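Anyone up for a design puzzle?
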């Protein structure tokens, strides 16, 4: 049931995108020849007015076919013969529908779960934030010159900067102007097995969760395993495990686990990781006002929109590896893992909705990138047409789109293969 919910959520994003194109095309009196749910051979179809509505065999994606979109047409109602601003509205409607969907979904989630704010609730004594002069009650509004709209952005920028010294801007009660403070994040280098303990306080050696693609998961460790020994040395807590790994470093370890009364030995090679720590905790609102919910949802949505150009920049500059990118296989798998680990149906539903909102915002923003085959490239072509007052022939535009399409397909196959390899290399 939960896997089905994940599948429906993933398709909802694509269907809403195509509905955006469809609705604005209809309102613009453009002849829509077909609206199809899914792709491949038709299962069945029906015609209402001039539009054929189809259901196809492969249950993924959707599309809208407009007259004159990919071929010459002399009809006044064809897409190609409409004014530039009309065509631009139809093209932009798909990505904008995704962004609106993301905002509405996050509003629903935040109304049920509450939300984190940018206001600092607690600062650990002696931490980087404490040493920098940041105080409880401060509201973080900037990180290294970048405006902060959602508290998670602090973690993202901290990760990308690899823990380098930064400038944090805060708003403090009673002070009108933003206060800027230099901070040196604490960098922890640890050798990890890639699991999360059942008790974060270090009193348990029971595996509560596994890092996807981590050493423990690859070695065959399972949720519920109790780690009893490392290289024959008895361990009873997370602190003992960390102390052992600190001395052992990258050497492989024979991890003895108790799995439902049966003892098993797994060979695990720890992974060196760097963790960056500021020593701050953000406050949260359990039951916010409608204005507060909408404001936080807007911040979350915009944060995910601007992460698209940031991610492209980080990818080009090498700050993020292409192997870290996740495609549909990885997204669906992650959403399913989150849903399956939720204790109740409602918790699973809210987690799936949260991911749906995040992905919808990302897809909407990505489609606005001016790369051939994406909506952004079509908007760029229309902008050039509006400035030059010369229309680019449909056939030439189709060639550009086709080239971009095959590049995107090739890149998608690479990312998908990368996702699959994460699961089969255990």
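Challenge accepted. My sequence:
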């Amino acid at each position: 049931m939960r896997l089905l919910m994940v599948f429906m959520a993933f398709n909802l994003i694509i269907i809403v995108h195509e509905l955006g194109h469809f609705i604005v095309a209809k309102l613009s009196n453009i002849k829509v020849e077909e609206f199809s749910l899914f792709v491949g051979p038709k299962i069945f179809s029906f015609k209402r007015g001039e539009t054929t509505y189809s259901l196809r065999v492969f249950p993924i994606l959707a599309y809208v076919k407009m007259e004159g979109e990919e071929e010459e047409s002399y009809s006044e109602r064809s897409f190609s013969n409409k004014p530039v601003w009309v065509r631009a509205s139809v093209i932009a409607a798909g990505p904008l529908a995704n962004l609106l969907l993301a905002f509405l979904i996050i509003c629903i989630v935040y109304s049920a779960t509450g939300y984190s704010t940018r206001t600092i609730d607690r600062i650990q004594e002696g931490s980087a934030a404490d040493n920098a002069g940041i105080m409880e009650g401060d509201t973080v509004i900037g990180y290294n010159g970048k405006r902060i709209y959602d508290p998670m952005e602090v973690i993202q920028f901290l990760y990308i900067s690899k823990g380098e010294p930064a400038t944090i801007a805060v708003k403090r009660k009673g002070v009108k102007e933003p206060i800027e403070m230099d901070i040196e994040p604490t960098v922890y280098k640890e050798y990890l097995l890639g699991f999360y303990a059942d008790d974060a306080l270090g009193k348990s050696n029971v595996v509560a969760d596994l890092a996807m693609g981590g050493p423990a998961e690859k070695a065959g460790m399972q949720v519920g395993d109790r780690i009893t020994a490392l290289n024959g040395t008895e361990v009873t807590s997370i602190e003992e495990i960390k102390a052992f790994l600190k001395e052992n470093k990258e050497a492989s370890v024979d991890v003895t686990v108790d799995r439902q009364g049966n003892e098993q030995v797994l060979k695990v090679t720890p992974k060196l990781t760097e963790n960056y720590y500021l020593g701050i905790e953000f406050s949260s609102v359990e039951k916010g006002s409608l204005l507060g919910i909408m404001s936080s949802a807007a911040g979350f949505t915009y944060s995910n929109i601007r992460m698209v150009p940031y991610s492209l920049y980080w990818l080009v500059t090498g700050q993020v590896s292409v192997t870290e990118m996740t495609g549909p296989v990885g997204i669906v798998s992650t959403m399913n893992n989150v849903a399956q680990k939720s204790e109740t149906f409602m918790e699973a539903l809210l987690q799936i909705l949260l991911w749906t909102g995040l992905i919808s915002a990302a897809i909407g923003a990505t489609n606005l990138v001016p790369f051939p085959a994406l909506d952004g490239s079509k908007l760029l072509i229309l902008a050039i047409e509006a400035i030059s007052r010369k229309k680019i022939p449909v056939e030439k535009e189709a060639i550009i789109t086709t080239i971009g399409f095959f590049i995107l397909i090739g890149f998608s196959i690479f990312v998908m293969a990368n996702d699959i390899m994460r699961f089969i290399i255990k």
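A detail worth pointing out: Confidence is low (pLDDT under 50) at residues 422-426.
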